[in-house]
TrEMBL record:
Domain Cation/H+ exchanger transmembrane positions: 1-127
Keyword Ribonucleoprotein recorded: no
Species name: Candidatus Dehalogenimonas loeffleri
Pfam hit, one: Na_H_Exchanger
Membrane-crossing segments per the record: 21-39, 45-66, 108-128
Principal location listed in the UniProt entry: membrane
Protein name: Cation:proton antiporter
Amino acid sequence: MGVIIASAKSAHRIIILTSRIKEMFGALFFVSIGALIDITQFQVFFLPALLVIATMLFGKIIGCGMGTKLMGYDLSTSLKVGLGMGQVGEFALIVAKAGQDLGVVSSFLFPIIGMAVGVTAFLTPYLIRFSYRIDPVMLSSHWNQIKTRFTDTK
């Protein structure tokens, strides 16, 4: 919803009237993007896609988690933020498709990004649930051991 609509007095009514259209275009977007992926080549891009997914998840967990920790939050909150940011969004599909259309991105990369978006969309809720099951005391003791190992200058 845009800023102008959100500040309108009848914003609630506009949301109700346009939500079905928004949902239809969202579904249409994912179907049209999915139609661009050649699923007969699944075995070719499966392993590279898993590598990209693992790299993205690890990078987001470390990057977002460490950024949150550096901003002064506790380790448990930092891990929750890092695990919660695991999803690769549909914007990655748009950028990959635009790059493919311009000839600057290989056509091999598009199904890999598509698979990463799909897998991380389904995986992120489980990562968030997992982040709430981690014992903060155990996490802090492991964090202190790692910190000591890397900061000790013997």
